[in-house]
Amino acid sequence: MNILEKIIARKREEVSESKNITPVSELEKGIYFERKTISLAEALRTSSFPRIISEFKRKSPSKGIINAQVTPAQVTSDYVNAGAAALSVLTDLDFFGGTFKDFLQARQANPAIPMLRKDFIVDEYQLFEAKAIGADIILLIAACLAPAEINALGKKAHELGLEVLLEVHSEEELNVSLGDYIDIVGVNNRNLKTFETSIETSISLSEQIPDSFVKISESGLKDADTILNLYRHGYRGFLIGETFMKTVNPGAALADLQNDLTQQRNINSLVL
C-alpha cells in the first residue's frame, strides 16, 4: 500500500467517525454555512499577472515537520498583506498536521479572500464540513476518485456554492476527470505515489487543458523564472506551500517572490 492509499483508507475511517459525532444538520448551523463564497476562478481569469495561492502547511508525509513555530492567523494575514490571490489551509490531521481550528483561525483573520480547504475529499459529508468552516473552494484529487465520484462531488459542491479545484497528475487522469462541475484544473507536479516533483508535468499538460478551465500549477514551485515560464504556458495561479512554510517568515518569503516576479517581468518586457 503506497502513501496515497494509506491516506485515503484513513480518510474514509475519519469521515465515518465524524458523521457519528457531528451530523450534517449540525454542520448546517455553522456560522459560516450561509456565507456567500468568493470566486477564485474569476480572480485568476481576470488577472494579467501570475497570482500566488499561498498555503499554510505544518508538515507532510515526505518531509515531516516543516514549521511548528508559526500560527495560521499570523501566517495567512502576512500572506494576504503580501498579495496572495487566495489561501490554502490543510485540514488533514494524521498526515499533514492540519485541523479545522487552523482553517477557522485563518478564515476569521482573512474574511475577504478566497480560501481552499486542502484535504482528501472522498465523501459528500466533507463538502458540508468545508462550507461550515468558511471554505470557498474544495479540492478533488483525480488520483483517488473515480470519474463518477468527481462528477457527483462536483455537482454537490456547486449546489452548496463551492468552487471545485480538480487536481490531476497525468493526461490519463485529465481525460477521464474533466466535467461540467469543475472550475479550476490544478496540475500537481508532485507524484503522490513517489512524492517526487517535476515542473515538466505542468508544461506537458498545459495544451491538454481546455481554455474554458482556469489552470493552476502546484508543487515544486520555488522561483520567479519557473512561474513566469508556466504563466506563458497558460497557468494563471500557482499554489505554493512548502517553499514559504520552511522559512522563518512565510509572508516575507511570498513578498520576496512577488518582488522577483515583478522584476523579472519588467526585465523580460525590456528584452522583448
UniProtKB/TrEMBL annotation:
The EC number(s) this enzyme carries: 4.1.1.48
Highest taxon of source: Bacteria
GO biological process, one term: L-tryptophan biosynthetic process
SUPFAM superfamilies on file: Ribulose-phoshate binding barrel (SSF51366)
Catalyzed reactions: 1-(2-carboxyphenylamino)-1-deoxy-D-ribulose 5-phosphate + H(+) = (1S,2R)-1-C-(indol-3-yl)glycerol 3-phosphate + CO2 + H2O
Protein's recorded name: Indole-3-glycerol phosphate synthase
Keyword terms, alphabetized: Amino-acid biosynthesis, Aromatic amino acid biosynthesis, Decarboxylase, Lyase, Tryptophan biosynthesis
Broadest EC class assigned to this enzyme: lyase
Recorded GO MF terms: indole-3-glycerol-phosphate synthase activity; phosphoribosylanthranilate isomerase activity
